[in-house]
Amino acid sequence: MSDQSSGLSKAQEIYSNRSRRARELKAEGRKLIGYPCVYVPVEMLTALDLIPYRACGDIREPVTEADRALPGSFCAVMRSCLDCALKGKNDFLDGMVAIHSSDPQEKTARVWESYTDHPYFHFIDMPVTVRPEAVEYFTSQLDDFRKTLEAFAGRELSADRLKQAIDYHNRQRGLVRQLYDLTKTSPPAISGTEILQVVKAVMGLPVAEGNDLLTEVIGEARDRTDRPEKKPARLLLWGSTLDDADVMQVFEAKANVVMDDSCGGVRAYRADVKLTADPLEDLARYYLNEITCARTFRQASPGETSKAYTKDLQSRFGYLDDIIREWNINGAIMLLVRYCDPFAFEMPALKDYFESLGLPSTYIEYDYTTGALAPLRTRVEAFLETIA
Amino acid sequence: MYFAGIDVGSTMTKAVLTNEGGELLSAVKGPTGPEHRRLANEVMRGALEQAGLQIDDISYIVATGYGRVNVPFADRQVTELSCHARGVFSLFPGVKTAIDIGGQDVKCMKINGGRLIGFVMNDKCAAGTGRFLEATAATLGIRLEDMGDIASKATKRVQISNLCTIFAQQEVVALLSRGEPLENIVAGLHIALASRVAALAQRLVIEPDLALTGGVAMNTGMVRAMRESLGRDVLVPEEPLLTGALGAAIIANEAYREAAEDGTLPTGTRRLEEATFFAEEDL
């Protein structure tokens, strides 16, 4: 490992104890607002000097408390997130914002609200299509969110402040993309595991501090001599949530994970928010259209009645084609957390799409616990043996 | 020259020795238990004794199975999926699809010329694995190995609606208290398990020949139930438990040749005895 002052080791330290930095910020008088999912418009928090803190689950923590409220056959990530919250692991948070990105999150949010006593709580409703009416409705929901936030923060969220916050977060998105650019080489200048640690660290920091950390890491990784080892396969990891370095290391033991499409990775950063006159609507458009999560239904062309499967696949997964070529990817893993139905239903079509590109892929479902690591290793290694 | 394959499964550990012509010299099985490494030694020692060989006579060893990383005397680890594919292919050269039902996994494999080209495995829980039969046999107070014979005496098959091993046990208890004959319940359990496995296998395009391996394939009742659920014939090796270890030995033979060509042959002596689960670095 590099010296302690380096960006990478700083990121690793924050990653392994995210709440420490959060508690420091809290002690400095800052307010932190938790969010469990990348669909929450963090720009609106930043604009009011509230620190967005991605509330995560923990694969090492056996779910016990959440069992009081949630069934066992339920989104394993949400169960774990709630369990950590109920055990007081996020007790530094001043509030929580959840969003209807999936039904389990909506149900969990209600429980969260009743079982915890954060001073602020807000739930954002969110449509599941990308039609113009959906953007309009989502904008109105974000406007409701603005009102409760303003009441909590005791000041107005002006368009100018919001635009400024969007600028900061767009800069962060650009930096994260630069981080992923470092994996285009062979061997990559930074490993998938390191990227995961950096991104998860950044998701718990004020945006400016996160941007400084990213800048430092990028500079360091670019010039490093101790690059990650070159492995026989360059993998794309598509799926719901992958936010644990130990899980990532199962993949990286015998392959380089050079790109992901996961909400613990690049998903929140792949595109920028395009600013026009109405920043709230810009955010609505961005979060609905630009974040590629299976929870959003994408029609080839809204209102179109003819069904063309190839065209449909292209409009849903076309963005992956460029990635596969640019990052020289030779295998894809569709990784799902157990009981994640939206992604499970997306999988067969994506498999067809990968096949149409001639890219070998496999589908693996894992339990969000450390017990999942051994079965995961067998499946990953067997897949790598098929493409070797 | 001699080669070894050792398959440390969740329930059983298996070792196979072959000569360079691929001829089977010895095969030993034993329960895995909690101490993978110790048993890996014992099973390997048994296989060596049976073949009249010493550990130093073995040119290359491949370890496979769930406990493959706990075989310190192996030269290489390969997953059980690739090993089964290779092993089944050596027994049935026409095989295109294989289903291995083990103690905690079900593996459905697509095979092309002995190479694994695709697979699906059980992903939710132990439903559909050998554990399902083991647990329900225990509830019924019968021996696992008698289940196939008992099922063959059934006059009808009771519907078992629950595939969760725990709930199936409850269901079995309820059926017993209703006075349902044992053989009918056992027959129902077989078809319940087989239909679950068949549904999983059908996620792959099943092409003949189709082979069934793993400990569960030793149960004639399961073989019958699998034929029925899949609506096609299944081939079963004489020793369905050994295909993984056999495949590992064949891969060992091939890996040795490759390594010899590349000049990357393993060096140093193997120490069978030192390999215990409680190695010093763990203390």
> Which CATH class of the largest domain in chain B applies here?
Alpha Beta
Radius of gyration of chain B: 20 Å
**Outline type of chain B:** elongated
CATH-level-2 architecture of the domain at 17-149 in chain A: 3-Layer(aba) Sandwich
Helicity level of chain B, as a percent range? 25-40%
Class of secondary structure makeup of chain A: alpha/beta
Annotated CATH homologous superfamily of the largest domain in chain B: ATPase, nucleotide binding domain
Q: Which percent range fits the helix content of chain A?
A: 40-55%
Task: Strand order, main sheet of chain B: write it out.
Answer: 3-2-1-4-5
**Strand fraction of chain B:** 15-25%
Strand order of the largest sheet of chain A: 2-1-3-4
What is the CATH topology descriptor of the largest domain in chain B?
Nucleotidyltransferase, domain 5
Descriptors:
heterodimer; A: 388 residues; alpha/beta; Rossmann fold; four-stranded parallel sheet; 8 strands; 49% helix; 12% strand; globular; B: 283 residues; Nucleotidyltransferase, domain 5; 2 domains; five-stranded mixed sheet; four-stranded mixed sheet; elongated; disordered C terminus
Report on the structure:
The complex is a heterodimer of chains A (388) and B (283). Chain A has 388 residues and is α/β, with parallel strands linked by helices. Chain A has 14 helices and 8 strands. Chain A is globular and about 60 Å long. The longest helix of chain B has 20 residues. Chain B is built from 8 helices and 9 strands. Chain B is α/β, with parallel strands linked by helices. Chain B has 2 domains: 124 residues, Nucleotidyltransferase, domain 5 (2-Layer Sandwich), CATH 3.30.420; 137 residues, Nucleotidyltransferase, domain 5 (2-Layer Sandwich), CATH 3.30.420. In chain B, strand 2 and strand 3 form a beta hairpin. Helices cover 39% and strands 19% of the residues of chain B. Chains A and B meet through strand 8 and helix 14 of A and helix 2 and strand 8 of B.
